[in-house]
Specification:
Elements lengths: L5 H9 L2 H7 L10 H11 L12 H9 L2 H15 L3 H34 L4 E6 L2 E6 L8 E5 L7 E13 L1 H4 L4 E3 L17 E2 L4 E13 L5 H12 L5 H30 L4 H15 L4 H18 L2 E3 L3 H6 L4 E4 L11 E6 L5 E2 L7 H12 L16 H12 L4 H7 L2 E5 L7 E8 L2 E8 L1 H7 L4 H16 L3 E10 L11 E9 L6 H10 L3 E5 L4 H10 L11 E2 L11 H9 L2 E3 L3 H13 L4 E5 L5 H6 L2 E5 L5 H6 L2 E3 L4 H41 L8 H11 L1 H8 L22 H24 L4 H17 L20 H19 L2 H5 L8 H23 L6
Parallel strand pairs: 9-17, 9-20, 17-19, 18-19, 20-21, 21-22
Antiparallel strand pairs: 1-2, 1-3, 3-7, 4-5, 4-6, 4-7, 8-22, 10-11, 10-16, 12-13, 13-14, 14-15, 15-16
Helix pairs in contact: 4-6, 5-6, 5-10, 6-11, 6-25, 9-10, 9-11, 9-24, 10-25, 11-24, 13-14, 17-19, 24-26, 24-27, 26-29, 27-28, 27-31, 28-29, 28-31
The structure holds adenosine-5'-triphosphate.
Length: 866
């Protein structure tokens, strides 16, 4: 049996196709049977390359046990035991276990959702199995499968070519050199160092042109890319930039905390507190202030956000992109299929004499002549009654209009056999076919109207009249094509000159529903939407006006040809271009220039694309967006986001979610840090004033490690957008916590610490008073979750109050506090239920920070960014 891997691979490229097929136990014509494919899938495993091996559960558990906090708690527990404080020792050990359990489950969950996300958006491949062509998930490919590839496809596994037609491949993903290499089926004797055999295709490379039938030789981690990934996986450090930033923040806080704990301890000694109490308090405060769960929650928040985006048609290809999405400032989008439906219908023909004819079955002779060009110079196939139409929607629309006039392409080809074809190219913006008609040859052409007019022989006044008409038609938002023909003495000769003009065909492509609302929403959120299209300037402008993309005061649409040399632009010219909402007649190369131009102006750019040639622009853009339906695999591979329905709305949604995720992580951090800082402040102040402790060490542990975790998590995964789209994009260089957040947290901490101490003093700073102080602080921290609303949101109806998880978490926190006060747990935590007037003022005091913050936010917070 063949076993994949590099050693065997040598043998198959040295041999001819038949011998290679025998080695792979493959049938180049009929492919594997379904049963054999399933058997091999079980034997070789799925065709997946994991960039980094996912962590097994025991490694995750180990990480929970082997960290600073766990060590601190374990030490505290042992010290308590040595000092004869058994209850404390056990309680601390339980806190430690709970902490490990919560940490383990959150991290395990994050890991699993990441793994599932990696499988999302996997491409499908065309294979032959059981003699039939079919589509399978790329992950289900097995060695020996017959794989069919065409231009734009990403090679999904290592494969041996058995048949090829004009096949060229870009191997830059493997070699770093972006040149197209010709490939074919012939056996290769020897290859030079660093080169790949001409008859082998490798996973991760891209088919640049032509097509091939090949046999899968190796899948998954046995492919060359897999071997590289294995090496790279071992070397790479994990985490997204955000997770790394959080880790850095956490490390800094460790030092800060140690300093505070030391200061508190010093104060304790100075005021004559018992050493054991001081020790435990210092440990509890240290545990309180170190937000060790931050990176994990960030990962959960990102992963959850990615699921939400995927469910609405935007699949992110990696976690990092989510962060960038939230700071995107410009979205450059194509028109056809993204802003419009790409459901084309022919509205009418505009003939050379100025007449217009709608496709209603009654066509004049000149109209039929024009339509013949539209039908012959066409690469689509309508197919029979039970077949799916194949090809470009615009070309299909032309074929349908042709049928109305009795022109059926397959039938027409019988009397007009096709002898030559010039495929559509973005350079000429035309396509042509040459046919044999009654012993002679004739060419038919369709293409961009100005290109076709330029290829035709026309008297000057007629040309001027047609150019004027072309503009008028385009201004109505119609998509125009020019049609032309000419007799060919030499069927191989030059086509695009001296042609006879046959007319314009005008197509309509309705704009997608909801796009106007999305464009407006993005505008309000400080983003600009720029249309980048290959279409005619006037058509583009008309559609852009319909969609609110062009607004008063915006510069005129620019043509791709006007972008020629970016370096020679003056600053004003560059600025004007940067404000331009529409670029027309753009080729893929020009897209790259547009990204460059905008980025040089400090913009964070999202750019959409679908073709193989769009890949460089998608890579260069901060957020490359590929079309899932229409897009080539090359574009999808280069992209950060793949839109499953090619729908603009999904981009808007993704931007919104990108902001929501970042905001959630920020809220989570602010909530936790400010609550913890309140405890530190209350204890430190009490020590400084020589009072007894208002909060006991075990109580602090209980609050931080158990009852406060849930509201924090609820904030981390909230899905409500709140006011995120009412403010400008986040500056990508801004830290997670800017100066204003530190001030804000200090404010919260002071307020909460203050009510805690007030309760303590009101009750006479006794043991009973300490219980009441603790409950005041704990309740205030529970309500504190509602302080996390955006400054522009309604105090009662906002993204926190609309988050059911937040309510659940508050209920759970309250239940846990009740349990701590009214069950046997109270003896361990040294808690007593409030008595007398405290039953009233404890809850009232706990509400004071909430009330103050809501007032401040309502009156002064509006202009502030969250
Ligand atoms: P968008 O960029 O919004 O998708 P587009 O489809 O117009 O717009 P291109 O595909 O670059 O962009 O096409 C440029 C122009 O070339 C089109 O406006 C049309 O006039 C012409 N054209 C496009 N496809 C064909 C084709 N198959 N045959 C002939 N002409 C075509």
């Amino acid at each position: 049996m063949y076993s994949p891997g590099m050693n065997r691979e040598k043998e198959i490229w040295r041999q001819g196709p038949d011998e290679a097929a025998r080695k792979l136990e493959a049938h180049p014509e009929s492919g594997l049977t379904g049963a054999e494919a399933r058997r091999r899938l079980a034997e070789y495993g799925p065709n997946l390359v994991e960039e980094a091996e996912s962590r097994p559960w025991w490694r995750i558990l180990l990480a929970q046990v082997a960290n600073f906090i766990a060590g601190l708690l374990a030490a505290a527990s042992v010290v308590s035991l040595l000092l004869g404080q058994e209850v404390e020792a056990v309680a601390i050990a339980i806190a430690l276990l709970l902490n490990v359990a919560i940490g383990f489950f959150t991290e395990w969950r994050a890991e699993r959702s990441l793994e599932a996300l990696r499988h999302l958006g996997m491409a499908r491949s065309r294979v032959v199995r059981g003699g039939k062509e079919r589509q399978v998930e790329a992950s289900e490919l097995v060695p020996g499968d017959v794989l069919l590839l065409s231009a734009g496809d990403l090679v999904p596994a290592d494969a041996r070519v058995v048949r090829a037609e004009g096949l060229t491949v870009d191997e830059s993903a493997l070699t770093g050199e972006s040149i197209s290499l010709a490939k074919g089926p012939d056996a290769v004797e020897a290859i030079a160092e660093g080169e790949t055999p001409e008859n082998m295709l490798y996973r991760g490379t891209v088919v640049a042109g032509g097509g091939a039938r090949c046999l899968v030789a190796a899948t998954g981690m046995d492919t060359r890319l897999g071997e590289i990934a294995k090496l790279a996986g071992e070397a790479s450090g994990g985490g997204t930039p955000l997770a790394r930033r959080l880790e850095r923040l956490g490390r800094r806080l460790v030092f800060l905390t140690l300093a505070v704990a030391a200061a508190v301890a010093a104060l304790g000694f100075a005021t004559g507190k018992p050493p054991f109490l001081i020790f435990e308090t210092a440990v509890a405060l240290a545990v309180a202030a170190i937000p060790e769960g931050l990176p994990v929650v960030a990962t959960i928040a990102l992963a959850q956000g990615m699921w939400r985006m995927a469910s609405r048609g935007a699949v992110m290809t990696h976690l990092e992109a989510v962060e960038t999405l939230g700071s995107t400032t410009v979205i450059c989008t194509d028109k056809t299929g993204t802003l419009t439906e790409n459901r084309m219908t022919v509205r009418f023909l505009s003939l050379p004499d100025g007449g217009e004819e709608e496709p209603d079955g009654k066509f004049s002779d000149p109209a039929v002549r024009a339509l013949r060009a539209a039908v012959l110079a066409n690469a689509a196939e309508l197919g029979g009654a039970d077949e799916q139409p194949r090809g470009d929607p615009m070309e299909l629309a032309l074929l349908r209009a042709g049928r109305e006039a009795g022109l059926d392409r397959p039938e027409l080809l019988r009397s007009h056999p096709e002898k030559r074809r010039e495929p559509f190219s973005a350079d000429t913006k035309m396509m042509a076919t040459v046919h044999r008609v009654d012993g002679d040859h004739r060419a038919w052409v369709k293409g961009a109207p100005e290109a076709v007019l330029a290829a035709c022989d026309l008297e000057d006044p007629v040309r001027a009249e047609l150019e004027k008409r072309q503009d008028e038609l385009a201004r109505r938002g119609l998509r125009l094509l020019g049609l032309a023909t000419k007799a060919m003495e030499d069927p191989g000769g030059d086509i695009y000159q001296n042609m006879e003009f046959l007319g314009f065909v005008c197509l309509e492509d309705p704009v997608r529903e909801g796009v106007v609302a999305d464009v407006d929403m993005l505008h309000d959120a400080g983003l600009r939407v720029v249309m980048v299209t290959g279409d005619h300037k006037a058509t583009a402008r008309a559609v852009a006006e319909k969609l609110d993309i062009i607004r008063s005061g915006d510069p005129d649409p620019h043509l791709g040809s006007e972008l020629a040399d970016l370096d020679s632009l003056t600053e004003e010219q560059a600025d004007e271009l940067r404000r331009t909402p529409v670029f027309a007649r753009i080729t893929p190369e020009r897209k790259l220039d547009i990204v460059d131009l905008l980025q040089r102006g400090g913009q964070v750019v999202a750019m959409t694309g679908d073709g193989v040639n769009d890949a460089p622009a998608l890579k260069k853009a901060d957020i490359g967006v590929a079309m899932g339906k229409r897009g080539s695999q090359a574009a999808k591979q280069a992209a950060d986001v793949v839109l499953t329905n090619d729908d603009f709305t999904a981009i808007a949604w993704a931007v919104e979610q990108g902001r929501v995720i970042f905001r959630n992580i920020r809220r989570f951090v602010v909530f936790l840090l400010s609550g913890n800082a309140a405890e530190v402040a209350a204890v430190a102040l009490a020590m400084a004033l020589g009072w007894p402790l208002p909060l006991l060490p075990l109580q602090i542990l209980y609050l931080n490690m158990i009852s406060d975790v849930f509201p924090a998590l609820a904030l981390g995964v909230g899905r409500e957008s709140g006011d995120v789209m009412n403010r400008p994009p986040r500056d990508p260089s801004e830290p997670l916590l800017a100066r204003r957040h530190w001030w804000e947290m200090a404010g919260y901490a002071v307020l909460i610490a203050a009510v805690c101490l007030v309760a303590f003093v009101l009750a006479g700073t006794t043991r009973q008073a300490a219980s009441e102080a603790f409950l005041t602080l704990a309740l205030a921290r529970t309500w504190h979750v509602f302080n996390m609303r955006g400054p522009e949101e309604h105090p009662l109806r906002n993204s926190v109050t609309k988050n059911p998880l937040a309510w659940g978490a508050v209920a759970l926190s309250l239940a846990l506090l009740a349990a701590a006060t009214y069950t046997p747990l109270a003896a361990i935590l040294d808690l007593r239920p409030p008595t007398g007037p405290a039953t009233l003022y404890v809850p009232l005091l706990s509400l004071v920070p909430l009330a103050v913050v809501q007032l401040v936010k309502s009156f002064w917070g509006k202009e502030r960014n969250e």
